[in-house]
Amino acid sequence: MTRRSVATAMPAPAPPWHHLRLGTSWQLLIDKQARTGLLFIAPSVLFLFVFVFYPVFDVLRLSMSAISFVTDRERFVGIANFVEILRDPKLATVAWNTLIWTVFSLIGQFGLGLAAALCINQNVPGMKLIRTILLLPYVVPVIALALFWRWMLDGSFGIISVALQSLGALGADQSPLALPNGAMASVILANIWRGFPFVMISYWAALQGIPTEQYEAARVDGASTWQEFRFVTLPYLSAITMVMLVLRLVWTVTFFDIVWLITRGGPGGATEHWPIWIYEETMGFFRFGTGAALAVFLAGILIVCSTAYLLLLRRESDP
Amino acid sequence: MNESSSTFSKLATYAVALTLTLFVGFPLFWMVISSLKPSAELFVSPPRILPHEITFEWYRNLLGNSGSISLFRNSLVVGVSTTLICMTAGTLAAYSVTRFVYPGKRVFLVAALLSYMFPAVVLFISVYMIINSFGLVDTHLGLIICHCILTFPFALWMLKSFFEGIPCEIDEAAWVDGASFLRTFFTIIVPLALPGIFSVAVFVFVLSWNEFLFASVMITSGTLKTIPVGTAEFITSFDVRWGEIMAIGTLATVPVVILFLCVQRYFLSGVLSGAVKG
């Protein structure tokens, strides 16, 4: 907490209230403060308990239940839902799609994000405007992104499709969205468009924190631009990269909207990734138990992966 | 560094920056320009970049349609209510964790941070069941609660960073002068933190306005649907009303972009202090 000299204006400087040596009157105030503090967060705590923590436990319970849609009755079935998932012929395809979606989205977002951050960190005219434009995808509604993406990829009149057709990469009146690989590439590209500004500003914030003396020292030592980047800039970005990688991994694997709104998992399941599977089981077939099991499965994999990753990093940093 | 290499690096910077700007800007430009093209110019192959003439026909069609007007009204109702509820709870909580000492504070903050990471697609099934048990499925209130789940942790962490920037001595001075905690909060701290509070409020609103998953799960009546869900259903795979589709996309985008531009400065300062969600 920041403490500045405002306190000196007071007649008798009040003792800092979180110290332990206190008179009874201060003790009273502390108790009153504790009460007030708790009162102020009470609504939030209640809200988090009912609508976040309880659902976390409830999804575990649901994942081991079968729920009849007709009678609304729940029955405990143990791990049957998980067994069903593992036996589902779709599993391999969906897992593979999820992997492709995640890996390429992350590569694109981090690559473009880093390049963009290095650009907007330069103090050259016009960069403020460019920074504003590059941030826009961060707030553009995914529905709008899906709409103009589908329009640009329209088989007959879409500007990208027509360009690809004239290059001979696509047949006449064909849209990339009609081809399995083309559809996957399209949704990934849309996700990179939407996600790279987040990486850009996070990297930009880290770049702003690098002391300029470091670059001056490097220059005195005769470092080239590449060496400056490699030995001054990159080390400063490694900490934020690790945190962001976990965050982006979780948010990318579980990101539902773009794929659903652009392809609905099609053509023929070619872009169906894990979130789409969860959604279809739940909202399409009303198999809440299976849907919950899929959700728990995914959350479990993510928790294991990110914990393992963080532990590995910790071991590497202090050998 | 010598002169020629710095000119070169400047050129390289501009080349990369302009490529990225084109990558980001062209689709947005294309959406807006397509929404202004008459049919005769929309449906030509190869497409022309700039239209010969501009039409507002698509916007007129949309605004004359009570269905699309109600989408915007619903999104506004849900967005504003979410913002009010989330900001009230969020500012009180953020004030509490930055100013008072009590047991369990750290646990609360860590719990909020974890729920900030928790993806909607994992939780929506059990959230749906709870909302259902309160009888709030297919009501705006049910959706507002869902949007608060998504936005509250983010709002709390961002507000916390703004409140930490206000020295505690200001509060202490007010307390010593006999102001109650609540009065100090409302008459001194909230006004001081107003720019920060406003920018967080904008982000909460934008998240709610753009949210798709919960909105599609919770709302089933056509008259209660928000823009993302209503629009997604407005078009089918074989729909060719591209002029209207681009117009509705533009109308959905413009308000949030304007709001974002208003608070960009505060948003960036929030980013620099490490609180952001995407």
Question: How would you concisely characterize the structure shown here?
Answer:
Chain A is an all-alpha fold and 319 residues long. Chain A is 69% helix and 2% strand. Chain B has 13 helices and no strands.
Task: Provide a descriptive summary of the structure in words.
The complex is a heterodimer of chains A (319) and B (278). Mean pLDDT of chain A is 84; it is low at 1-22. Chain A is globular. Chain A has helices at residues 24-63, 80-87, 91-120, 127-135, 142-152, 159-166, 180-208, 212-220, 225-253, 257-262, 274-284, 288-317, and strands at 65-67, 74-76. A two-stranded antiparallel ribbon of chain A has the order 1-2. The longest helix of chain A is centred in the first third of the chain and has 40 residues, at 24-63. Chain A is mainly alpha-helical. Chain A has a single domain, classed as MetI-like fold, CATH 1.10.3720. In chain A, helix 1 crosses helix 12, helix 3 (91-120) packs antiparallel against helix 9 (225-253) and helix 7 packs across helix 9 (225-253). By secondary structure, chain B is mainly α. Chain B is globular and about 75 Å long. The two termini of chain B are 38 Å apart. The model of chain B has no long low-confidence stretch (mean pLDDT 86). At the A-B interface, helix 1, helix 3, helix 4, helix 5 and helix 6 of A face helix 1, helix 4, helix 5, helix 6 and helix 7 of B.
